Structures are given as structure tokens and as C-alpha cells.
Amino acid sequence: EVQILETGGGLVKPGGSLRLSCATSGFNFNDYFMNWVRQAPGKGLEWVAQIRNKNYNYATYYAESLEGRVTISRDDSKSSVYLQVSSLRAEDTAIYYCTRSRSYILDYWGQGVMVTVSS
Amino acid sequence: DIKMTQSPSSLSASLGERVTISCRASENINNYLSWYQKKEDGSVKLLIYHTSRLQPGAPSRFSGSGSGKDYSLTISGLESEDIATYYCQQGYTPYTFGAGTKLELK
Asked: Which residues of A touch B36 (CB under 8 A)?
């Protein structure tokens, strides 16, 4: 069974940084791309970042609205993916979902982790 | 970025009713279109990918169609478990989603 579990959320002050972690199991992690998608309160889904697998040289892609403030990374030995977000703003307050993907197809999603940016 | 315009934003329907949700891309996305279901408990599931391919485990009452810029998701007979918000997503980076359609029971 595919399992995806996000951790690392919480309350962060504006201007601060946060590192989200996503642990996975139940599938061959090396075969898949991984993504982060977020949903701000009262808003729709927003794709944040993707990291491809070794076959694609771990290429990374980011939403333009966040580029420069976010870094996605992965550790294949731990079947885990990470999202580092810096210079946090109130509008970064959201539930952050970790998702597995085959290309653009986000086929399994975690339950999400809440990030609140507030002083 | 490719903009996805989804309609309607909300929809009220009766059990057993046929429901259709539409999505229009700002440019041709060559069938690289997925549909997702998000429930109130926060869970998100892939329903349809590549316009019309049913994700294993998704009920067969869900179907997708379209080409070029215009796509749709149809539920052939609404069931209570289908009450959720539905999102389309195009497949060129940066990936973008429609604004969502909140489906409620009439």
C-alpha cells in the first residue's frame, strides 16, 4: 500500500524558514517524480514544486510565484522528499501536500501538513 | 503559465443525476489533463488522467473527455460519496489547476 506522510509544519513568523519532510513507503521511490502542492485557506490547489528521479538527473521545477524562495530535494535512500521554504509570508499559510507523480499525473497524495505564517 | 478556467464554481445536484464540470485551458494542452477529487476531510484522489483514462480504483461512473483547450468531467449518476470539490490540472510545467468546482447535494 502506498503511504505518504508529511511532517514539519507549524507556526512560523514572517520572514522565517521552514523545512517540510515527506516520508513514503509501499512503492519503489526511485521510479517516481515527487511534488509539493499547497492549498491556502479558502483557495484552490496550487502546485509548488517537482523533483524528478535519477533517470531525469533529479531535475527540479518550481511555480513561478515561489521560485527563489523554495527548494525541493529528495533522498532516495530514505524514500523521502523535502521542501525548504524561506522568507515566509502570510500568504504562504496553507496545507502543504506531498504527492507522487508519473510525469504530470499526481497519482497519490498525502494527508497534508499545515503551515501557518503569523507573528 | 497556462491558465485553467473551470466552471461552474459550484454545483447543486440530486442523487442519480448526471453532472458535468468543464475546464478550459488558455492554450492547447494536447490532452495532458487530469481531474482530482478533494473531500472535506482533506483527502485528494486522482480520478482521470490524460483526459479520459480512469485511474485504477476510481468508480466507473466518472469519465473524462475533451481535446485542444476544452475538457470535461462527467459523473454519470451522482452518489452521496461524490460530494467533494473537483479540480482539473494541466500537464505542462509549471502545472496549474482550475479554481475548483464544489459539488453539493440538492
From this structure: 45, 106
Using a CB–CB cutoff of 8 Å, tell me whether B86 touches chain A. no
B95–chain A Cβ distance below 8 A for any pair? yes
Strand locations in chain B (E): 4-7, 10-13, 19-25, 33-38, 44-49, 53-54, 62-67, 70-75, 85-90, 96-97, 101-105
Supply the pLDDT for residue A67. Answer: 79
Q: Which three cell numbers stand for residue A86?
A: 524561506
Q: How does DSSP assign B3-20, residue by residue? A: -EEEE-SEEEE-TT--EE
Residues of A in contact with B91 (CB under 8 A): 103-105
Give pLDDT tens digits for A27-68. 999 999 999 999 999 999 999 999 999 999 999 999 998 878
* Total Cβ atoms within 10 A of residue A23: 17
Nearest residue on chain B to A103, alpha-carbon basis: B91
Q: Does B100 touch chain A (CB under 8 A)?
A: yes
pLDDT digits (tens, 9 = 90+) for B56-102: 999 999 999 999 999 999 999 999 999 999 999 999 999 999 999 99
Taking the Cβ of residue B53 and every Cβ of chain A, the question of whether any pair is shorter than 8 Å is answered with: no
Among chain B residues, CA nearest to A109:
B44
